[in-house]
């Protein structure tokens, strides 16, 4: 048992040592990144920016394709843009967007409930097994609670 513990401890130490060797220190990696950026020509910088923009755009478009309320959202954005000073004119668009989001959320919950197994069974309470509460034992002096005496409220 002791030999296994020593072996596992040694493996853990070796893995941690390899992690630290493969990962450069944070300060040097940041400095290297800054130097790399400073070495870029303006043309290369524009190309890199365009590449990042295209990647972000394709990611955003994939998210928008899954959005069921994009039409209502566009209508609401357009109304708010046109009526910057009088947002109250867009209440109907706000309500239609809200109802669309509620319906889409409920549809998604229903879909998940249909395809996933139930996580636990609902147990019905058994009323017959519950004991009936007993009245407190009568004492010689009964304490009265009065609304005008707050110190009697907590008795």
From TrEMBL:
Annotated segments matching region Disordered: 114-137
Name used for this protein in its record: Uncharacterized protein LOC115629886
Native organism: Drosophila lebanonensis (Fruit fly)
Lineage of the species this protein comes from: Eukaryota, Metazoa, Ecdysozoa, Arthropoda, Hexapoda
